[in-house]
Design brief:
The chain is mostly helical. The chain is about 75% helix and about 0% strand. A hairpin with a 4-residue loop joins strand 1 and strand 2. It is elongated. It starts with a helix and ends with a helix.
Amino acid sequence: MLAGVRLIGFLVVAPPFYSRSFPAPVKVALAMGIALVVGPRAAAATDMVPGVMLANGSAEFLGALVLQAVAGLGLGFLVRMVFAAVQVAGSFIDLFGGFQLAMGFDPLSQTEGATFSRLYNMAALALLFASNGHQLVLGGLVRSFDALPLNGGLSMSAMGSVLTGGLGELMLAALQIAGPLMVVLFLADVGLGLLTRVAPALNAFALGFPLKIFISLSLGSIAFLTLPHIIGTLTERAVEIVVGVTR
């Protein structure tokens, strides 16, 4: 039960399982099925820690359940923060390409985004399954039971340190993904501004929206081809964070 609660908390937050396309009963069944497999391993790892015992009473057991729920949610949030770089990169492209006006709410991911933001998000989820990245993420979570006992909690200092560094890595990864296209779109704006300055009667900015949309669609499709490599790198980074924060 303790292992299952940590797994459920993780699946509720972490990609690709956080999507509402996965019904809650499926998440619970998946978590309890994995918990049945890793339960003996987690219990053995807890017995090997000196001075650490499983809960004996109801109050201690409820406290251990709360700790495991917090641990699962915390680890899931760290994984989601890593993969959020893809969605943020799509938001940058929408902002510079003029697609921000087509903002919409995605009921599956419970987030708002425009065209490229939603496209990149859905592609990242699909590539996670196609590349078996979800198995690597779950494998990293299973390995966390060896370092973090069943009745233990996450270190807040380690969590804060990872969150602080992770936010910087998120923005850096998003800029690396969308940076080349953002530079091209910015140069297109500069070129239109210079053309308007030279020939004011031409009204070059009237061509700005269709031109930037054409550039975004043409170059964005080329940048889209790099997503499989990006998802592989982010998956490895997510596993490193899950295992590292529990040490």
